[in-house]
Design goal:
Blueprint (H helix, E strand, L loop, with lengths): L2 H10 L1 H18 L4 E13 L14 H15 L3 H8 L13 E5 L7 E11 L10 H25 L7 E12 L4 H28 L6 H8 L18
Antiparallel strand pairs: 1-3, 1-4, 2-3
Helix pairs in contact: 2-6
């Protein structure tokens, strides 16, 4: 099968090749319901390494490497249930936070002694802007309590990691914003449409293989073993036929 023949097969069943992606796109949009958005409150903190833990002349005992190790350790502590419970104790009644909503990692701009911390929650888009029920208000309050916990008890959390002399300072935030949509949500509709297009093309070739009708002179010659000597034109609408 050459390219021209394949194109002819697809054009003959264009309604299937194009219709299936259109139907899938419409069903995806109509069944999606209200869009969800991710609200996040983000802050950054730095740690000061005491001179007592620095090992002079050691590549592994530098302030940069010790700081990176401690930030990596505390980044594992912040998402824990214990830290979430400590923050929740500071919140007023009716406002709560779970361990999965607080996270931390090494800062992308300074991978030595600075960490990014965020409180993130996915909510319906129509919940934004509702007076007294805007989730951004709760996340801003939770982030402020995270700051309080880090500033007041940061040395205690580091003490659990074996370094009770580490000082912690919040240097940025918290700031509340709408997080960018996830890659999965952005690609969901295009991927479904692309898959529907592939399925439509496959069905078009399958129907062609199962179709017993003859469309061209070559089809007739292959089926009959004889040459084509003439054609009967298709009757046009409005013509009288006997």
């Amino acid at each position: 099968m050459d390219v021209r023949e394949a194109a002819t097969i697809l054009m003959r069943r264009w309604w299937l090749v194009l219709g299936l992606p259109v139907v899938v796109a419409l069903l995806t949009v109509l069944s999606g319901g209200p869009d969800d958005v991710t609200v996040e409150a983000r802050l950054r903190f730095a740690i000061d390494i005491p001179r007592s833990v620095i090992v002079e002349g050691s590549d592994e005992g530098t302030a940069a490497k010790i700081g990176a190790a401690l930030i990596d350790d505390i980044a594992r502590v912040i998402p824990s249930e214990a830290f979430a419970a400590a923050v929740a104790d500071r919140l007023p009644a009716g406002v709560d936070v779970s361990a999965g909503e607080i996270a931390s990692e090494l800062s992308a701009t300074d991978r030595h002694r600075i960490a990014d911390v965020w409180v993130r929650r996915t909510v319906p888009a129509d919940a934004l802007g509702v007076p007294g029920a805007d989730p951004r208000e709760d996340l801003g309050m939770i982030a402020e309590k995270v700051v309080e916990e880090l500033e007041e008890n940061g040395s205690q959390w580091f003490a659990r990691l074996g370094e009770d002399e580490v000082a912690l300072t919040v240097i940025d935030g918290p700031t509340v914003s709408i997080a960018a949509a996830s890659l999965r949500s952005r690609l969901e509709l295009p991927m479904r449409v692309a898959l529907a297009l592939v399925v439509g093309v496959g069905l078009a070739f399958l129907l062609h293989a199962l179709d017993p009708r003859l469309y061209t002179d070559a089809d007739a010659e292959d089926a009959s073993g004889a040459g084509v000597v003439g054609r009967i034109p298709r009757a046009k609408r409005g013509w009288r036929t006997s």
